[in-house]
Amino acid sequence: MRLRTSYHTHNRYCDGKGAIADYAAAAAAAGLEALGVTSHSPLPFPEDYAMRLEDLAAYRDEVARVRAAYADRLRVHLGLEFDYLPEYADAMWAMLADSPFEYLIGSVHFVGTDGRGVPSAYDLSRAGFERGLDELFGGDARAMIAEYYRRVRALVAWGRTAILGHLDRIKMWNAGDRYFDEQAAWYRDEIEATLGACADAGTIVELNTSGWRHAVRAPYPSPWVLRRCVELGIPLVVTTDAHAPDRVAEFHDRAAAVLRQVGCTRLAVLRDGAWTLDAA
Ligand SMILES: [Zn+2]
Ligand SMILES: [Zn+2]
User: Fold this and answer.
1) pLDDT of residue 100
2) Does residue 197 belong to any structural domain of this protein?
3) Which ligand is nearest to the CA of 242?
4) 110: CA distance to ligand 2 center in Å?
5) Is residue 9 part of a domain?
6) Cα 202 to middle of ligand 1, angstroms
7) From ligand 1's centre to the CA of 68, what distance in Å?
8) pLDDT at 180
9) 150 domain residue, yes or no
10) How far is the CA of 205 from the centre of ligand 2 (A)?
């Protein structure tokens, strides 16, 4: 199995290091056939990781320039990682209405809003995760996880994002089942309901390798979830969520091994504006 695409990458328009051209050079050097540029979507509240709305036009132009420069060896796609917050999604969508993105990755990075009205991110630090858990959910991890997956399903049902980003990222700090048991029936039910929503909406699920670099030391989502995707006929892609050019193909070997384990033989590929399945 050879992995040939990298559809989830950041760069210096958001919180990534390096220029878009650096990612294209790294992707071409790694023998990839397609690179998706997916900076974090501009957000309507203060934070320090998303793209600025006023940079959107320059971002589009830069992707177009890099696409032209690599036209003979790499397909370069204009995408965005769309940060889904139920209360802001439609306004954010309206903000992007004039931008012809080839696809969006939809991701949930927030599980609620704290007492000061600030969205609460679970993934920036363990301290932030625990603060959200205590302040918003009274320390009830199951309630927090349920809210996370409710949001993921709302995002999928919203229907505007081709790929669901890092499906079970809420497990980021859960090494050793510290906060919840991934095999508990209630947790498996949340996953099943979420995969059902993906199957209904025709949403692609990514095997995001960045979890191998995080404290949890596991891909998003876990292999047992990927196996269920294969059983349910949900299309998969492998992404690395690279925030530095030398990570565009990071852990591709491990991802290929997991795909073999779970019986995945085809991967989603974007060609001529449409997602199709290619033999992996
Ligand atoms: Zn993300
Ligand atoms: Zn990302």
Assistant:
1) 85
2) yes
3) 2
4) 14
5) yes
6) 20
7) 27
8) 97
9) yes
10) 14
The CA 72 to ligand 1 mean position distance, Å, reads: 30
pLDDT at 115: 84
Boundaries of domain holding 175: 5-111+142-279
How far apart, in whole angstroms, are the C-alpha atoms of residue 56 and residue 43? Answer: 12
Residue 86 lies in a domain: yes
DSSP string, 185-240: HHHHHHHHHHHHHHHHHT-EEEEEGGGGTSTT-S-BS-HHHHHHHHHHT--EEEE-
Give, in order, the Cα–Cα distances in Å from 266 to each of 160, 256, 269. 23, 11, 9
Tokens found for residue 279: 């033999």
The predicted pLDDT at position 1 comes to: 83
Lookup: tokens for 113: 């809003």
Ligand 1 centre from 70 Cα, in Å?
26
pLDDT at res. 123: 95
Q: Which residue has the tokens 């809210």?
A: 147
Helix (H) or strand (E) holding 261: helix 252-262
The total of structural domains in the chain comes to 1
Q: Ligand 2 being an ion, which residues bring their Cβ within 5 A of it?
A: 81, 241
pLDDT, averaged in runs of 10, over the chain (280 residues): 95 98 98 98 93 95 98 98 96 88 97 90 96 97 98 97 98 97 98 98 98 98 98 98 98 98 98 95
Q: How far is the CA of 79 from the centre of ligand 1 (A)?
A: 13
Are residues 76 and 103 in contact, defined by beta-carbon separation less than 8 angstroms? no
- The CATH number covering residue 189 comes to 3.20.20.140
**Contact call for residues 180 and 232 (beta carbons, < 8 A):** no
Distances (CA, A) of 176 to 172, 181, 188, 216: 11, 9, 17, 8
